[in-house]
Design goal:
The complex is a heterodimer.
Chain A: E1 6-9, E2 12-14, E3 34-36, H1 38-54, E4 59-64, H2 71-79, E5 83-87, H3 97-109, E6 116-120, H4 131-139, E7 143-153, E8 156-163, E9 166-173, E10 176-180, H5 192-198, E11 203-206, H6 208-211, E12 223-230, E13 238-241, H7 246-256
Parallel strand pairs in A: 1-4, 1-6, 4-5, 5-11, 6-10, 7-10
Antiparallel strand pairs in A: 2-3, 7-8, 8-9
Chain B: E1 3-7, E2 9-10, E3 13-14, H1 16-32, E4 36-40, H2 48-54, E5 58-61, H3 70-83, E6 90-94, H4 97-110, E7 114-118, E8 120-124, E9 127-134, E10 139-145, E11 151-155, E12 171-174, E13 187-193, E14 206-210, H5 220-229, E15 233-236, H6 238-242, E16 263-267, H7 273-276, E17 284-289, E18 302-305, H8 308-321
Parallel strand pairs in B: 1-4, 1-6, 4-5, 5-12, 6-11, 7-11, 14-15, 14-16, 16-17, 17-18
Antiparallel strand pairs in B: 2-3, 8-9, 9-10
The structure holds flavin-adenine dinucleotide (FAD) and adenosine monophosphate.
Chain lengths: 260, 323
């Protein structure tokens, strides 16, 4: 195979370094600046490596995010992706995973021919972990989830798929959808040149209406939040500085627990 | 209310997570009326007795999947049964790789939302609500399904107790996977099991986990030695699984195993929310970390602010000398 076009789903999320908070509608607050979900940096890197190995083609990005947010897309463009599509629309506020998959699917279908769609196994903020497999069904494509090693061999994808107690070797013809685990590859840091180049790479912004996906947002979600409560806190424990005898504290604790 | 439980098998028996969900489904069905059906992606002949004991009165089984991935195959078989007229009100899935995939494919086929990562469910009249822990388990969000069923929900392992009710073996009905066409083109060509010795991580009474604070892969041996001395299982944070120090099957947390041992010992683990959600239910938590501000101390019953390279060797020696 010469040349390969890969689309990477990139979610833009609130910075995980700042504590999460719920908005007045009980959904995760996403009104501040958003960044590229680290989970998706693996997909971007994997896509860049596959295109490189295929000897041509390009990496495109697709993201659904509020307020026309593009900073996470720019990070992925700086890593080396060629272009991006952003779906941003106030009507998408409150969308569930199924709607997200429908929206991403509709956007992907407008992005031109592709060989592979890559997503992360789960996002850092929502972690429903269902969007990639839902997306495969929306697109009517075969899929391999939880891929921890991916190669392309003569138009066929070969993956090691993580299982509960090991891994399976799986083959899959293209086009296909895969979800990749964290750690599958080492994401590159954008170079200064990459960051400068990213500023002029094209990002097309579309609305849910442009894509013809209805109903979206709260209207489309088959769920509603009924309560948010504080979980029972664990009683505070005993915290001691190790003075060389810390191990003895543990031994005594285990004896007390009748473990030893 | 008729409930299906996506039922998984391991070494010839239903998984514990499956039996937990069947038990909960049986209790729900007995309080509001209705039947419990186990839906097996594979051959169910060896499972029917245990599935029946825990509450299933009927079993649907696809038969051997012949290397097809469960997500695409089992969801198609479920859809075929539903189209054939037997439509459940609720389908419960274990929050596992396969459970998630089957549920995802089915959600698109049925055009129904999915609710994942749940730890509880309640039924009040026709309304079904599920509870999900967020922010590392500090906050519980309860969400109810709206619109028409079937409602699709996935539950973390260990959310419910698995209890036999002594029911008879369930009758098995074959529900073959329909022709999948090109969407079923992914094929498993080899299966690798990463062997571990000692008790299983998610069943062990004691779990000793190591994290990035161990410094290097070779130091994980201290965690294994300690686990062995305590007849427990070794576990890990994702940081060191990603780094390739230990296989994924060691991972504790949101994307790994949920553990609730009598004692959990965290060595050089910071206590990220995604780690805590997998071990917070442990009865006793001991943490060793050199940073006294590490979040793990917030949930520890006994915290040692110290260097794992100093504390662990002494602890191991003390335990060894006890014989
Ligand atoms: C979507 C998603 C899912 C995730 N799922 C999981 C999951 O299932 N499980 C999981 O564990 N993580 C998960 N994570 C990752 C999680 O956010 C953390 O990155 C990870 O748990 C950190 O691992 P750690 O505690 O080993 O490393 P760090 O956070 O780097 O902590 C190392 C700790 O070791 C201490 N330390 C350093 N040197 C020493 C020493 N000599 N002696 C004693 N202490 C020392 C440090 O003070 C520090 O607290 C997930 C993340 C995401 C985004
Ligand atoms: N809004 C979004 N925009 C782009 N990709 C997304 C979005 N939501 C989910 N994804 C992709 O699907 C993966 C799994 O998401 P989730 O199902 O939310 O855990 C993410 O890691 C992304 O790769």
């Amino acid at each position: 195979m010469t040349g390969m076009n890969v689309i990477v789903c990139v979610k833009q999320i609130p910075d995980p370094a700042t504590p999460g908070a719920l908005g007045s509608d009980n959904t995760l607050k996403r009104d501040g600046k958003l960044i590229l979900d680290e989970s998706d940096s693996y997909g971007v890197e994997m896509a860049l490596q596959l295109v490189d190995a295929a000897g041509g083609g390009e990496v495109s990005l697709v993201s659904m995010a509020p307020n026309g947010e593009v900073s996470g897309l720019r990070t992925a463009l700086a890593m080396g992706a060629a272009k991006g599509t952003l779906v941003s629309d106030p009507a998408l506020q409150g969308s569930d995973a199924l709607t997200t998959a429908k929206v991403l699917g509709a956007a992907i279908q407008k992005m031109g021919a592709f060989d592979l769609v890559i997503a992360a196994t789960e996002s850092s903020d929502g972690y429903t972990g269902t969007v990639p497999e839902q997306l495969a069904e929306v697109l009517g494509l075969p899929s391999v989830t939880f891929a921890k090693k991916v190669t392309i061999n003569g138009g066929t994808l070969e993956a090691n798929r993580q299982t509960e107690d090991g891994f399976d070797e799986v083959t899959c013809p293209l086009p296909a959808v895969i979800s990749v685990t964290a750690g599958v590859v080492e994401p590159r840091y954008p170079s200064f040149k990459g960051i400068m180049a990213a500023k002029s790479k094209p990002i097309e912004t579309v609305t849910a209406g442009d894509l013809g996906v209805t109903p979206v947002g709260w209207a489309g979600a088959g769920q509603s939040i009924v309560s948010v409560t504080q979980a029972e806190a664990r009683a505070a424990g005993e915290i001691i500085e190790d003075d060389g005898e810390g191990f003895a504290k543990i031994v005594a604790y285990l004896e007390n627990m009748k473990v030893i | 209310m008729n409930i299906w439980v996506f039922s998984q098998e391991a070494s010839g028996a239903p998984t514990t997570a499956t039996l937990e969900l069947l038990t909960k489904a049986r209790l729900l069905a007995s309080s509001v009326g209705g039947d419990v059906t186990a839906f097996v992606g594979g051959d169910a002949s060896a499972l029917a007795a245990s599935l029946g004991e825990h509450g299933a009165t009927k079993v649907y089984a696809t038969g051997d999947l012949a290397g097809k991935l469960p997500g695409v195959a089992v969801s198609a078989a479920m859809k075929a049964v539903i189209d054939g007229g037997d439509s459940p009100d609720l389908i419960m899935f274990p929050q596992t790789t396969e459970g998630r995939d089957v549920m995802s494919r089915l959600s698109v086929k049925l055009d129904r939302t999915v609710l994942t990562n749940n730890v509880d469910i309640s039924v009040d009249g026709g309304s079904v609500s599920v509870t999900t822990p967020i922010f590392g388990g500090n906050v519980l969000v309860t969400t109810s399904f709206s619109g028409a069923g079937p409602f699709l929900a996935a539950f973390r392992p260990k959310s419910f107790a698995a209890e036999s009710a002594g029911g008879a073996a369930a009758a098995v009905t074959a529900t073959p996977v329909p022709d999948l066409g090109s969407i079923g083109a992914a094929q498993v060509v080899a299966v690798h099991v990463e062997a571990t010795s000692g008790p299983k991580l998610d069943e062990a009474a004691i779990v000793v986990s190591g994290g990035r604070g161990l410094g290097e892969a070779a130091k994980y041996e201290m965690v294994e030695t300690l686990a062995k001395l305590l007849k427990g299982a070794p576990g890990a944070s994702r940081a060191i699984v990603d780094a390739g120090w230990v296989p994924y099957s060691y991972q504790v947390g949101q994307t790994g195993k949920v553990v609730k041992p009598g004692v959990y010992i965290a060595c050089g683990i910071s206590g990220a929310t995604q780690h805590m959600v997998g071990m917070k239910g442990s009865k006793n938590i001991i943490a060793i970390n050199k940073d006294k501000e590490a979040p793990i101390f917030g949930i520890a019953d006994l915290g040692i602010v110290g260097d794992v390279h100093k504390v662990l060797p002494k602890l191991i020696e003390a335990l060894q000398s006890r014989g």
